[in-house]
Design brief:
Helices cover about 80% and strands about 0% of the residues. It is an all-alpha fold and about 280 residues long.
Amino acid sequence: MIISNRGRSNWSKCKRAAATLFILLFTPVVARAQSIGASVKTWIEIKVAHEAAEALANPNVTAKERLRVEQIYYQLVRDNPQSVPAQNALATFLSKNGEAEAAIEHWRTAQRLEPENGEAANSLGGAYLRMGRVREAAEQFLLAVRSESDNPDYHFDLGNVEFVLRRDLTAAWKIDSAELLQRALFQFREASRLAPTNLEYARAYAETFYGMPNPDWSEAQVAWQHYLELSTNRNFAYLQLARVSLKRHKKAEALSFLDKLSDSSYSEIIEKLRKQAEAL
């Protein structure tokens, strides 16, 4: 095939255009690959730091060894100042080693880099709570839940602060105690739903019904039944199911659960509940 001069010129333009298009398309791929590579490198460095920190569990570890591990974490952040996981890793290390204020600064840095980072928010919530800064703690726990709504730990931590410290929060958030209890119940329910084999979350959810102003006892029974399925302490579960059955005015059901109890330490309360059942 013979190509004219004009044809050759058009062909050259096509090749240049194709080359330019290839570069434009390929550049983001290279950038992403470089970013992924840097991220993997950072995670490897974090893993190395964590492995070094494991040695500090030895009660005979020296101050010099502890300082060496701390420097590994600080070097991690110096090498990766824009890395949220690196900032969180250093902050967690500092917190575990009694340097709360320094830890908070690095969690704040992580949060500035990524405002919706759930780990930084939840960790700040815990740090503020230990310092007695209840409102700030609750707000950080709330941010963590909003950032990562599928994390059961974040729901549990928020539920705890809303339930246990509700007197502080009713004033701070200007809501009544009943609404705060409803919110706490929801958080515990979510935690148990997202981690269905977690006994602590199941119990927290089930026990919260006793503090509610107008509890749904049918829902409470489902919650305690779930706890029964998980727990080895079946006597405790049967006792709670009996109590809930009484709340629902289910005499035969309550007596059935009481009959299942075999722990003599419960004999006094069993007798009390049995009398209540017989009076129905």
